[in-house]
Input
Amino acid sequence: MPKKILVIDDEKSILQSLAGILSDEEFVPVCVDSAEEGLIRLKSEVIDLVLLDIWMPGMDGIEALKQIKAEYPELQVIMISGHGTIETAVQATKIGAFDFIEKPLSYDKIVLAIKNGLRFSNLETENLILRQKANRKPNLTGNSLAINNLKEQIERVAPTDAWVLIRGEHGTGKELVAQTIHRLSNRNSKPMVEVNCAAIPEELIESELFGHEKGSFTGAQTSKRGKFDQADGGMLFLDEIGDMSMKTQAKILRILQEQTFERVGGNQTILVDVRVLAATNKNLEEEIDAGNFRADLFWRLNVVPIHIPLLRERVEDIPLLVADFVEDLSHKGLGKKSFTDEGLSVMMRHTWPGNVRELRNFVERLVIMCPDEEINAKTVEQYLHQPPPPSTPETLPDKAALAPYRTQNFKEAKREFEREYLIGKLQTNNGNISQTAERLGMERSHLHKKLKALHIELSDPE
Ligand SMILES: Nc1ncnc2c1ncn2[C@@H]1O[C@H](COP(=O)(O)OP(=O)(O)OP(=O)(O)O)[C@@H](O)[C@H]1O
Ligand SMILES: [Mg+2]
Output
């Protein structure tokens, strides 16, 4: 996709010559003759780099640079000046300018500075991805036949460009498998952008995926890149794909087939190169029969299916998983506990309907709540049969009830909170979804999706 360069200079002749140079180099120039106008354009267009004159009537370049850096810290700005002094250059660099070039402008210097600036932005993104990866440390723990078979499939498919549909029950590790495929793929220096299809309200899905131009709908005060844009060159992880409405499925299918799209309210066709991974815990074949899922979308996504086994089908992995979780928790400063063999055997006999996530949360609860250094069979039994009491809607949870949140990652803690919060609110409203949605200030359809995503089932639906 050609990069858009915003040029801000009050001299018409400079704007003209820069526009020529940029077009020759296959950039898209956006030229304005004042800092004020430049700031407005930044709000309405997605810009990749800025060339900014220092001396201008009205707001000068230094002030504009401050405002740009405050609002778009990741955007690189190259200052241009006819009367460059060392002091101004130093001042601009301190505020965060990427480079400084002097008039008269040399073709080669400008092009080089722009290319360096764009490369730097890419490096910053790559750095961020590396940091995320280091923090995430995705690792499929286990040594059972089932998990080894899974690892083998992942290793085979990851370096190809094939699309993968990851299937498995709740908490079996679908997201972890997606992260592992990304890590082992040729696209691992580019982002894997996650989209939780169940959590995005129907009316926002288009703008979320494709981005929008300023003013394209009420509330669109600035232009925004969509997930497809962000994933260009990398991967898009469509999580909970079975929870999308038929309307959204049709939209997604078109763009998945063509790999081109338009931003909402925009008229430019954007071409992207995206590898798609999708995940679901639903039986999509049944959903297709029931008319809830498009067969053509299923076949498009299901190029390579990967099925993750239930935890109870690979109980021999439990000791390794527990050891891993205990180790993780000790790094978080919760002390090092150990489990007796009998304690582990009790866990291996349990059915774990919530799979690895449930096991992980259980180990965390034990490590936090159990005062003993060594956790034996009796304690495991006792905790297995005493699930934490669900917090009642109108009372604040006490400290002990909050303890399980303490070391979960943010996403899981948030999900757990949302679940408890919504269950509480539904109880207060006797399970009436419309009433609950109204009281919470949510769209009914959005609440419905949220409940689905959080696997909250109503015993007495409306
Ligand atoms: N093989 C494994 N080794 C280590 N940890 C695992 C493994 N499988 C899953 N986990 C952990 O279990 C938790 C749940 O995994 P994940 O979120 O990938 O599951 P999921 O299938 O996407 O769940 P859901 O259907 O609820 O979205 C995470 O904390 C993950 O790190
Ligand atoms: Mg998941």
Remarks:
- The two ends are 48 Å apart (CA to CA).
- The pocket of magnesium ion (ligand 2) is lined by residues 174-175, 239 (CB under 6 Å).
